[in-house]
Amino acid sequence: MNFLQCFRLALKAIWSSKIRSLLTMLGIIIGVSAVITIVGLGNGMELYMTEQFASLGTTTLTVNITGRGSSRSISDDEMYALVEENPAVLDAVTPTVSVMGSAKIGRDTLSSTVTGVGEDYLSIKGYTIAQGRGIQYTDILNRQKVCVIGSYVALEYFGGAAVGETIRISGSPYTVAGVLNEISDSTSESGSDNLILIPYTNAAKMSFMGSISSYTFTAVDEDSVTAAKTVVEDALYDFYEDDNAYSVIAMSEILDIMNDMIDIMVTILAGIAAISLVVGGVGIMNIMLVSVSERTREIGIRKSLGARQRDILFQFVIEAAVTSAIGGILGILFGYLFSSAASAVIVALLDTDMAVTPTAGSILMAFGISVAIGVVFGYLPARKAARLNPIDALHYD
Amino acid sequence: MYETPAVSPAPSLIEFRDVYKLYQMGDETVRAVDGVSFTIRKGEFAAIVGQSGSGKSTCMNIIGCLDIPTSGQYLLGGEDVGQMNDNQLAALRNRTLGFIFQQYNLIPKLNVLENVELPLLYGGVRTSERARRAQAALERAGLSSKLQTYPNQLSGGQQQRVSIARALAGDPSVILADEPTGALDSKTGREVLHFLEELHRQGNTIVLITHDNSIAAHAQRIIRLEDGKVIYDGPSGGKGSVVQADEESEGTA
Ligand SMILES: Nc1ncnc2c1ncn2[C@@H]1O[C@H](COP(=O)(O)OP(=O)(O)OP(=O)(O)O)[C@@H](O)[C@H]1O
Ligand SMILES: [Mg+2]
């Protein structure tokens, strides 16, 4: 008997008891679909993160200064000078000063985040101007009371045309100088389009410390991120002589760390899901053992007609493998189904466009593993069948 | 007492040389086959008869290469079966033997044609050739119209004819029938026996196993067993071929 005949025989045997076969496959179906969904979830998370970080800039370095134990804080001029002195690795810098005070339009209090920035902020972030202009060097120098607002703010409070309008920030009136193009494609209150940018010099005055505690640098390209980080760290160490006084974080490093964390989490979860594959394998073994004793007589007949041990062994192993493989295929289909359902739920609940994306690798592996489980767990019952004594088998009922 | 069978000297196909089959039951030894020797030549129609427990099925299992003797030699087509491994025995069953069982032993999941193709499948016959030979065998058994039918849709007699077709399909040297009429009514049983007789006329070697003298009478030669020993081996019409007749003659003598 060749492989194809065994395969047809196996399909026939599986088809002839559909319900039982389906129940046999259940463990494999659940295991495979769970693994695929979990790996897909992890993959989707990584894709989403990468995308988000790419929009933040993978060449970006974020510097936070706590200034611990130091009476003097490094000045913005010194930071700008750093970029000018290291044109090979550093491209630009902008202070970023979070403003705690409230922003108001008339009596309405805005939920927008207010940030004090430098003139290069927009180019560093990759934001573009839709109306008016951005924050300029002279605004910063003269502490002009101007602001640039996100598309959400413009649309929500000014019906779109916002240039020339006034927003009160911590009590002072700011004139809207420009409106940004949409940053993210989902416009909502919690989205990144709900922002107000003002000159950092104004923001620093408003802040508690009166100094600038955070900067964003960009390296000239992704390859020089590490070198740029070293340059910035060295300069800060020279100034503070204490590496606890500041922190320099490369976005690409965060992305790597996050991806590593997701990978670890996914591996653990997929491992747990894979346990049900083993349970599924035991289920297959159980049913195959039942099937062997039910078909003892058939085995006897086949042997009397000249079937060798290996013919019988092959028949049952292939039957187990095919059962398990069909379970694997169904599991893959369900995995896709669960993945798209999960994507829909995530989009609906979290308002992000993250999609659960099953990987080709996980699918191939799931299929391979289910076939392997069939072979491994089918082997014992098959060997039992193959070794049956033909006389006893013929008289069995 | 032993008459030479009226058959031209044909090569011996089945040869038992002092065959024993012993079973150990606790500290008691059951002598299922107790020193049996006989030779069945090509083209013979022999019946192995005897009462229940006389060792018929044990003999049949040995002849059918499903079992090997405890001692003694069994030669099938001149080859010593006792020396063979499992694969060789399987190949021998496949090529040399055709089984007909009391319970038909068809595989219920397979249709008539597939059932008959089975021995050819295990013999490695190509697909087209397999279908052709299986159909030819079914035609001989008068079942050409039932190829796609499943065993449970057939009458007992028809099922037995399928199993005969299956036994014929591989063109075996010996057809071994163990109580082939045991599950059939007397009319259908007779039809099956006539079919076996016809196969014999066509030159097939047939070994029939039965406890029923009237069935054994269809055979040309009778080997009678009692307690694992041969007590008569001769033509079916001969003196001592029928136990009851034997006992009566002894009783009245
Ligand atoms: N596997 C076995 N283990 C122990 N004893 C056995 C075994 N097989 C057969 N025997 C014994 O061997 C003897 C012959 O049995 P066998 O089955 O050959 O008889 P039989 O002539 O076929 O009888 P029946 O007409 O009832 O089928 C019996 O006494 C039986 O109990
Ligand atoms: Mg018997």
Distance between the termini of chain A: 26 Å
Seen as an oligomer or otherwise, the chain set is: heterodimer
Which structural category fits the helices and strands of chain B? Answer: alpha/beta
**Helix amount of chain A:** 55-70%
What is the helix/strand order of chain A?
Answer: HHEHEEEEHEHEHEEEHEHEHHHHH
Major sheet of chain B: size, sense and barrel closure? 6 strands, mixed
Shape of chain A: elongated
The main β sheet of chain A shows up as:
12 strands, mixed
- The helix fraction of chain B, in percent, is 25-40%
Query: Can you tell me the number of structural domains of chain B?
Result: 1
| The CATH top-level class label of chain B | Alpha Beta
Low-confidence regions of chain A: none
Strand content of chain B: 25-35%
Q: Tally the beta strands of chain B.
A: 10
Low-confidence stretches of chain B: 245-253
Describe, in plain words, how this protein is organized in 3D.
The complex is a heterodimer of chains A (397) and B (253). Chain A has 397 residues and is α+β, with helices and mostly antiparallel strands. Chain A contains 13 helices and twelve strands. In chain A, strands 1, 2, 3, 4, 5, 6, 7, 8, 9, 10, 11 and 12 form a twelve-stranded mixed beta sheet that branches. The two termini of chain A are 26 Å apart. The mean pLDDT of chain A is 87. Chain B is an alpha/beta fold. Chain B is built from eight helices and ten strands. Chain B has a six-stranded mixed beta sheet, with helices on both faces. The longest helix of chain B is centred in the C-terminal third of the chain and has 16 residues. The radius of gyration of chain B is 18 Å and the shape is globular. The two termini of chain B are 17 Å apart. At the A-B interface, helix 1, helix 10, helix 11 and helix 13 of A face helix 2 and helix 3 of B. Adenosine-5'-triphosphate binds next to strand 1, strand 2 and helix 1 of chain B.
